[in-house]
């Protein structure tokens, strides 16, 4: 079977748990699609484009099955069946089983059931005789495949072997250290899920309905997994959840899930017992572990930052000077309509405190443009904020109208043409900022994590041999001197897959830290020598 994992790092972590469980139960993993007995498509359903990508992957898997292995079972897991559990069996009759978030640890039983239902369907169709299947199905590992197909699905008649739907309406699953896991990331970095679910009422977001309420793992359990990962050679622990700054607050006695605004959150934190678990206690304990590694904090909410967290990051040497803090907008009206529980003043003051309290911090954020009711004045306020704040890393998304969300039914929906124009304008402003940020690194020595050798395609795509970028005058004067072997690395300011890269000319050990000298830059990447 082929496992196709789409979407975010949190979805990837679920895929790793499914693979680990299957391996523990004796199921073989194969890279040969013709040998695979079952395919799992682990889907994303956050926005329309993610849903389309997921459906395309499902339909492509069904078509490939018709050509190469008609007895192959097809399973759909993740956010798509979690969100549309009642509709998908009718819309996708080619699927043999649907499973939700709570079922990832039950994947083996679901695999066997899907294979059985597929055989029953083929009997009804009387197309071919089902060959004798092996005692245990094989699993084809095909991580992060994102191929798309045109449209047509394979029509199957209604049979008594209808698809199994193993989806709980409100998931409450959270993995622990004992949960089997087969990592899909390179050996030198890993995603470490510290919590699941979300309590925020953002009007544009469907995640709480798909992933359930916030639920934290026990700190000792997270630390045990981190210790094992470090012992296995991991140099970067990426902490992930829907709201990492809320970590631990749900573990306190008499927890109420409605703590959302900065004032309420700070009051709750101050009332905690001295030994209570928070993101600060977790970071400090991870920082105390032996070994040479980074801890990277991803998915923080601006309403849940405290001065203690700023101080913790500043004092913990192994915590990367990098913060992922999606702000979504800055105009007061937009923040209110988005139900972000923050204000323009709070955000501006928080950014100031973070930069003052953590020297050298790199801030990554995201903004949504084209949200219902966003006027030209609102948008111009956002552009001014991007220019003034100069975020080291920034992404811009066009608003995606989602059924079942408060924003989906709002008046003042913005035409797609205007959304795209605004995104282009915002990214144009950020491009100028990004070039200035990259230029500020030229001439400096930077600690990087070396990942791999750069391919010819990567070098060409990064335009490393172009002289329109800021290489030091008088050094490496001719572009031809930049040709040769390059390594791909990342600095503290670069999270995997979403930020820039450091292209290093020279020879350095892969999967380890190194000191490099920055000699130039492209629009978003740095160029260095060893």
| SS element count, helices | 15
CATH homologous group name of the largest domain: tm_1862 like domain
Give the count of structural domains.
Answer: 3
Look up the CATH topology of the largest domain: pyruvate-formate lyase- activating enzyme
How helical, in percent, are the residues?
25-40%
| Percentage of residues in strands | 15-25%
Overall pLDDT confidence: 88
Task: Assign the CATH class of the largest domain.
Answer: Alpha Beta
Radius of gyration: 24 Å
Assembly state of the chains shown: single chain
End-to-end distance, in Å?
A: 43 Å
In total, how many beta strands? 20
The major sheet is characterized as: 7 strands, parallel
Query: What is the general shape?
Result: globular
| Protein structure class | alpha/beta
Describe this structure in words.
By secondary structure, the protein is of the alpha/beta class. The chain folds into 3 domains: 2-166, 3-Layer(aba) Sandwich (Rossmann fold), CATH 3.40.50.12160; 189-368 and 395-408, Alpha-Beta Horseshoe (pyruvate-formate lyase- activating enzyme), CATH 3.80.30.20; 445-529, Nucleic acid-binding proteins (OB fold (Dihydrolipoamide Acetyltransferase, E2P), Beta Barrel). Helix content is 33%, strand content 19%. Helix 7 packs parallel to helix 9, helix 9 packs parallel to helix 10 and helix 13 (376-389) runs parallel beside helix 14 (416-439). The longest helix has 24 residues, at 416-439.
Salient structural properties:
single chain; 530 residues; alpha/beta; Rossmann fold; pyruvate-formate lyase- activating enzyme; OB fold (Dihydrolipoamide Acetyltransferase, E2P); 3 domains; 7-stranded parallel β-sheet; 6-stranded parallel β-sheet
């Amino acid at each position: 079977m082929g496992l196709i994992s789409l979407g975010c790092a949190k979805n990837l972590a679920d895929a790793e748990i499914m693979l680990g469980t299957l391996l523990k139960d004796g199921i073989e993993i194969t890279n040969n699609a013709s040998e695979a007995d079952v395919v799992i498509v682990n889907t994303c359903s956050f926005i329309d484009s993610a849903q389309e990508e997921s459906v395309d992957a499902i339909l492509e898997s069904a078509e490939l099955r018709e050509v190469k292995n008609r007895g192959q079972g097809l399973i759909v897991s993740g956010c798509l069946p979690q969100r549309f559990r009642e509709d998908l069996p009718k819309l996708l009759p080619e699927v043999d089983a649907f499973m939700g978030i709570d079922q990832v640890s039950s994947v083996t039983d679901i695999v066997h059931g899907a294979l059985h239902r597929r055989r029953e369907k083929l009997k009804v169709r009387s197309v071919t005789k089902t060959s004798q299947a092996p005692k245990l199905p094989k699993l084809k590992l095909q991580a992060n495949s994102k191929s798309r197909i045109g449209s047509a699905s394979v029509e199957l008649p209604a049979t008594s072997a209808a698809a199994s739907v193993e989806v709980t309406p409100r998931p409450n699953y959270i993995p622990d250290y004992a949960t089997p896991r087969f990592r899909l990331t390179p050996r030198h970095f890993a995603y470490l899920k510290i919590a699941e679910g979300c309590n925020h009422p953002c009007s544009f977001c469907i995640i709480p309905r798909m992933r359930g309420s916030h639920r934290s793992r026990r700190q000792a359990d997270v630390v045990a997994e981190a210790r094992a990962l470090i012992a296995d050679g991991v140099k970067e622990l990426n902490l992930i959840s829907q709201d990492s700054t809320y970590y631990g607050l749900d573990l306190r006695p008499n927890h109420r899930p409605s703590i959302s605004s900065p004032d309420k959150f700070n009051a709750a934190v101050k009332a905690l017992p001295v030994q209570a678990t928070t993101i600060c206690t977790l970071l400090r304990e991870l920082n105390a572990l032996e070994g040479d590694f980074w801890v990277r904090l991803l998915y923080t909410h601006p309403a849940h930052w405290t001065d203690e967290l700023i101080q913790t990051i500043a004092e913990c040497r192994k915590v990367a000077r990098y913060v992922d803090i999606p702000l979504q907008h800055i105009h007061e009206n937009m923040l209110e309509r988005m139900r972000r529980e923050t204000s323009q003043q709070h955000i501006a003051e928080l950014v100031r405190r973070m930069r003052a309290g953590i020297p050298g911090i790199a801030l990554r954020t995201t903004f949504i443009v084209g949200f219902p009711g966003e006027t030209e004045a609102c948008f111009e306020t956002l552009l001014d904020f991007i220019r003034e704040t100069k975020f080291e890393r920034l992404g811009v998304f066009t608003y995606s109208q989602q059924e079942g969300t408060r924003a989906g039914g709002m008046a003042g929906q913005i035409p797609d043409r205007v959304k795209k124009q605004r995104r282009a304008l915002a990214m144009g402003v950020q491009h100028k900022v990004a070039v200035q940020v990259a230029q500020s690194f030229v001439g400096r020595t930077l600690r990087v994590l070396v990942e791999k050798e750069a391919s010819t395609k990567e070098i060409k795509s990064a335009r490393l041999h172009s002289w329109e970028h800021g290489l030091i005058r008088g050094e490496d004067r001719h572009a031809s001197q930049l040709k040769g072997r390059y390594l791909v690395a990342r600095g503290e300011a670069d999270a995997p897959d979403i930020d820039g890269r450091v292209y290093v000319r020279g020879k350095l050990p892969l999967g380890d830290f190194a000191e490099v000298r920055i000699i130039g830059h492209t629009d978003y990447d740095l160029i260095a020598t060893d």
